[in-house]
Amino acid sequence: SQKIEQNSEALNIQEGKTATLTCNYTNYSPAYLQWYRQDPGRGPVFLLLIRENEKEKRKERLKVTFDTTLKQSLFHITASQPADSATYLCAPKSGYQKVTFGIGTKLQVIP
Amino acid sequence: NAGVTQTPKFQVLKTGQSMTLQCAQDMNHEYMSWYRQDPGMGLRLIHYSVGAGITDQGEVPNGYNVSRSTTEDFPLRLLSAAPSQTSVYFCASSYSAGQPLHFGNGTRLTVT
């Protein structure tokens, strides 16, 4: 069956460092993959979308890579700030009309 | 623009009661969907709609009904609530299927 794996443990990082979050998927080949941010008590907010023919996508301090051979996407936040603390969800497009979400990785940026 | 609006924010039901979770969007999005989020399980798709009058089942549809009579509204009905339906429910919409989703802020439902 299709499976999405994100680090279920929290990631703690010092302010100013680069945070790297991992998303691995198995048993399917998504045409694209999305990343969302979720704050406590709020709905997820879309951040970036990367297509299978794109190796890398950037938006301000955010960078996403997509390796279809490794079946992996990496999400980087450079010069991390305490305001970046949140849970980050990856969401490969799993089939026609459906987007499937990983359980998310909780990022804590320590001042 | 209000975006995606969900009501109520919190609800407590007794087993066997019925209720409707409301979802409305003002972005003229064709695609709307319902997810539930449980600890350790992530977001799971319940039902979705690609336009008014069209609905389909997601990953976990049992115990839930939906209808889509207008583009703006996509209510989720629990016909006979069970404790297993205790969860946080999110409504999401997008311009079309597969496009980035806009989420509401959720309804926290507890079934006792």
Please give a handful of descriptors for the protein shown.
heterodimer, A: mainly beta, six-stranded mixed sheet, globular, B: 112 residues, mainly beta, seven-stranded mixed sheet, four-stranded antiparallel sheet
Produce a short descriptive summary.
The complex is a heterodimer of chains A (111) and B (112). Chain A is mainly beta and 111 residues long.
Kindly name the structural category of chain B: mainly beta
Radius of gyration of chain A: 13 Å
Terminal residue distance of chain A: 41 Å
Q: How many helical elements of chain B?
A: 0
Approximate shape of chain B: globular
Helix content of chain A: under 10%
Tell me the fraction of residues in β-strands of chain A, as a range.
over 45%
Structural class of chain A: mainly beta
Word description of this protein:
The complex is a heterodimer of chains A (111) and B (112). With 111 residues, chain A is mainly beta. Chain A is built from no helices and eleven strands. Chain A has strands at residues 3-6, 11-14, 19-26, 32-38, 45-51, 56-59, 62-67, 72-77, 86-95, 98-99, 105-110. In chain A, strands 2, 4, 5, 9, 10 and 11 form a six-stranded mixed sheet that branches. In chain A, strands 1-3-8-7-6 form a five-stranded antiparallel sheet, with no helix packed on it. In chain A, a hairpin with a 2-residue loop joins strand 6 (56-59) and strand 7. Chain A starts with a strand and ends with a strand. Chain B is mainly β and 112 residues long. Chain B has no helices and eleven strands. Chain B has strands at residues 4-7, 10-13, 19-25, 31-38, 42-51, 54-57, 64-66, 76-78, 87-94, 102-103, 107-111. In chain B, strands 2, 4, 5, 6, 9, 10 and 11 form a seven-stranded mixed sheet that branches. In chain B, a hairpin with a 2-residue loop joins strand 5 and strand 6. Chain B starts with a strand and ends with a strand. The chains are: A mainly beta (111), B mainly beta (112). Chain A binds chain B through residues 4, 8, 32, 34, 36, 41-46, 49, 89, 93, 96-104, and chain B through 4, 31, 35, 40-45, 48, 50, 56, 58-59, 90, 92, 97-98, 100-106.
